């Protein structure tokens, strides 16, 4: 084997190829003729003279130190310049040739990549794969043999004396099973997948109705909000601030806002404004719900003072399960309209919550929230549930009942109903089935916080903000307009089922006029009513008024009564 096949270099640390062949005795190359020595150049003589001059004067102290400094500075500049130049030249040559120096550590020449790295580089250079498809909750069916699978309502009890509404049986799963069935994914939101809310600082009043808190949406904006599409931005209260409840009207302390934003599961909420109701504690709540559900009671400053004066509220701002959140800068003068803010906009106050249960303050919750969610949302594969009115099904009949009961100004109710009639609202008939009613009993709302249900409550609130606060009148028009664009449905369950998990109470003003109950074992004494005095009669006053004696009604004694007349004796 020759040295050429070994790939020996022409020069290197092991000697040249010519030297190895000469040692082996061969001379394959001809010897070059001898070159005569050349005369040293003049420059060499000048350098030799400069060297001798330095050696002559260097032993002197001052000159030696100066020369040493000059030499050191020259060496330093030379090293800096040469090193930078070499690195720059190497980098430029590497970029031109596609080869980068190994100390860059980030990009390597493609030829030096091993075969097992080819797939890695290809995956880095190729675009990332599309995200996996979103998963949605699609409902479930109870296993065969479950008592709730074939449950049907029994006939109402035959009690002719009681004709009003009453609760009916409801089949709930045990709390543990209901918690285990809580969906891991949200429900599908038909029609809209992205919902944002309008934020404005400079507001101008609309054609009629509305408020600064609601943003005064125009009729054109109202019509556009019912054009359901994938990405939407709508008015939904809190328009003056980027954060709901912070300098927007309906303001809440930052400490409470932080806790509310940390609620990521289930929220149970209620509200009392104007000290109109008493706080009622939820009953039959599981320990899991007590530790994981956010129970919030919104109150105004008047109600806060009432609770403190009655020694119910202390510095902990808790009453039983309820966490008390004081609301400042209320947007409306009407407490009923203020109550619609948390009732319909809980998704704005709790932006990270998944489910919410609204309960009017006059109601007492007596069933665990997870059992209610399982029964009326998850089992029905619904994202919104509300009970229908126990007696009325038609909006126009409901409006007339509101006017008779003086629930609101009659002219405003007539204007709202006429407006809806012109938009196409018709009286309820069986032709609207499977829609079971146009009138809800809005004291309880069960909701999943997804875009379509949030859109529904936003638009429902906008109607309450523009027209009257009687939300039963505006419910059907909002629902029907959304249903025209999507296949979204909601669960309107029976009112007797609602009365199964909440107990109806009375407002505080009614309870305070009731006499206190007698102590145990005491005999109740009923006093007769005071006499009625007609002040229009002359010379009649309370001092000379004499009540007429009560006529005694004779009672029959039957056989015990004996005649006092003696029998006439006939002599015989």
Automatic annotation (TrEMBL):
InterPro entries: TOD1_MUCI70, TOD1_MUCI70_glycTrfase_dom. The chain crosses the membrane at residues 63-83. The keyword Ubl conjugation does not apply. Residues 17-40, 551-572 are annotated as: Disordered. Residues 17-27 have a biased composition (Low complexity). It comes from the Eukaryota. Pfam families: TOD1_MUCI70. Residues 553-572 have a biased composition (Basic residues). Residues 195-507 form the TOD1/MUCI70 glycosyltransferase-like domain. The keyword Hydrolase does not apply. Keywords: Membrane, Transmembrane, Transmembrane helix. PANTHER family: ALKALINE CERAMIDASE-RELATED, F3H9.11 PROTEIN. This is TOD1/MUCI70 glycosyltransferase-like domain-containing protein. It comes from Solanum pinnatisectum (tansyleaf nightshade).
């Amino acid at each position: 084997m020759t040295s050429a096949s070994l790939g020996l270099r022409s020069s290197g640390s092991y000697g040249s190829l010519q030297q190895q062949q000469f040692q082996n005795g061969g001379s394959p190359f001809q010897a070059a003729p001898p070159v005569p020595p050349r005369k040293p150049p003049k420059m060499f003589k000048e350098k030799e003279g400069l060297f001798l001059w330095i050696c002559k004067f260097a032993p002197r102290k001052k000159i030696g130190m100066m020369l040493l400094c000059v030499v050191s500075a020259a060496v330093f500049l030379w090293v800096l310049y040469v090193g930078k130049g070499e690195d720059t030249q190497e980098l430029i040559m590497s970029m031109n040739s596609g080869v980068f120096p190994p100390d860059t550590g980030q990009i390597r020449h493609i030829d030096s990549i091993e075969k097992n790295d080819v797939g890695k580089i290809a995956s880095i250079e190729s675009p990332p794969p599309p995200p996996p498809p979103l998963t949605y909750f699609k409902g479930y069916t109870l296993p065969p043999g479950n008592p709730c699978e074939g449950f049907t309502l029994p006939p109402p009890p035959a009690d002719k004396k009681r004709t009003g509404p009453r609760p009916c049986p409801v089949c709930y799963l045990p709390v543990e099973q209901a918690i285990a069935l809580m969906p891991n994914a949200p429900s599908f939101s038909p029609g809209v997948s992205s919902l944002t809310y309008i934020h404005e600082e400079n507001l101008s009043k609309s054609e009629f109705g509305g408020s600064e808190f609601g943003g005064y949406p125009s009729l054109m904006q109202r019509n556009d909000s019912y054009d359901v599409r994938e990405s939407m931005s709508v008015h939904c209260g809190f328009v003056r601030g980027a954060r709901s409840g912070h300098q927007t009207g309906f303001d809440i302390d930052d400490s409470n806002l932080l806790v509310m934003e940390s609620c990521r599961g289930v929220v149970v909420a209620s509200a009392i404004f104007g000290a109109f109701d008493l706080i009622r504690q939820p009953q039959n709540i599981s320990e899991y719900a007590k530790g994981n559900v956010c129970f919030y009671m919104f109150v105004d400053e008047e109600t806060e003072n009432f609770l403190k004066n009655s020694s119910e509220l202390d510095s902990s701002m808790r009453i039983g399960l309820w966490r008390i959140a004081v609301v400042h800068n209320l947007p409306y003068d009407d407490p009923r309209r203020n109550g619609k803010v948390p009732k319909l906009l809980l998704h704005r106050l709790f932006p990270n919550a998944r489910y919410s249960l609204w309960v009017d303050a006059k109601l007492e919750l007596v069933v665990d929230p997870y059992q209610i969610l399982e029964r009326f949302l998850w089992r029905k594969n619904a994202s919104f549930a509300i009970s229908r009115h126990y007696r009325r099904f038609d909006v126009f009949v409901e409006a007339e009942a509101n006017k008779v009961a003086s629930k609101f100004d009659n002219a405003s109710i007539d204007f709202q109903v006429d407006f809806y009639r012109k938009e196409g609202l018709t009286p309820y008939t069986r032709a609207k089935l499977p829609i079971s009613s146009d009138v809800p009993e809005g004291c309880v709302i069960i909701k999943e916080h997804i875009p379509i249900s949030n859109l529904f409550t936003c638009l429902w609130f906008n109607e309450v903000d523009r027209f009257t606060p009687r939300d039963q009148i505006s419910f059907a028009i909002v629902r029907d307009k959304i249903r025209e664009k999507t296949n979204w449905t909601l669960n309107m369950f029976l009112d007797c089922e609602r009365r199964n998990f909440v107990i109806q109470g009375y407002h505080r003003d009614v309870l305070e006029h009731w006499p206190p109950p007698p102590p145990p074992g005491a005999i109740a004494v009923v006093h007769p009513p005071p006499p009625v005095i007609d002040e229009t009669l002359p010379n009649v006053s309370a001092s000379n008024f004499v009540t007429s004696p009560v006529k005694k009604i004779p009672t029959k004694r039957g056989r015990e009564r004996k005649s006092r007349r003696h029998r006439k004796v006939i002599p015989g």
